[in-house]
Amino acid sequence: MADTSATREIFVTGLKNAHAMENQALSIMKPQVSRIENYPEVARRLEEHIRETEGQMTRLEELLQQLDESHSSMKDMALSFTGSMAAMGHTIAGDEIVKNSFANFAFENYEIAAYKSLLTVAELGGFPSATSALQANLQEEQNMAKWIDDNLRTVTTRFVELREAGESAKV
Questions:
Q1: Where is 10: in which H helix or E strand?
Q2: Are 28 and 106 in contact (CB under 8 A)?
Q3: Which residues of 39-61 are buried (b: 16+ CB within 10 A; e: fewer)?
Q4: What pTM does this model have?
Q5: What is the pLDDT of residues 3-58, one digit of tens each?
Q6: All structural domains of the chain
Q7: E-state strands within the chain
Q8: Nearest CA among 103, 105, 63 for reference residue 87
Q9: CA 132 from centroid of its chain's CA atoms
């Protein structure tokens, strides 16, 4: 397929949505990491993924610039707000760290789906120069989802152990 105006519009909208999605991810992860005390391995991985996410946003901005477009500040702001509210919602839960793990795993898989779809549109629309950046973002999201999956048992076990010992287990 060639770079048609409809496909280009779909691609640009997808890139803008992905940028806003990554902005939302930051607004979820930053408050989480600031509250973690008893799970240093989770804090370290979230800090690493925050840096990756910032790099992902830069890649998306570069792709948009190549298309003479820019990210949507309105979408960024709206999704950042909803991400902040989602992060705050778990702070009242007695099992905040576990709920955050569930939500983060779900969000990582949402991001994976979004990048797979964007890669398909890039292929259909004839945007081969975007493939490398989108593949890099996809790989980082897949790595994070795998890390959460691989560590859910450890986080849950630590949570239960802390609670059984009468210690603070929230974060």
A1: helix 5-35
A2: no
A3: beebbebbeebbebbeebbebbe
A4: 0.87
A5: 579 999 999 999 999 999 999 999 999 999 998 989 999 999 999 999 999 999 99
A6: 5-164 (1.20.1260.10)
A7: none
A8: 103
A9: 18
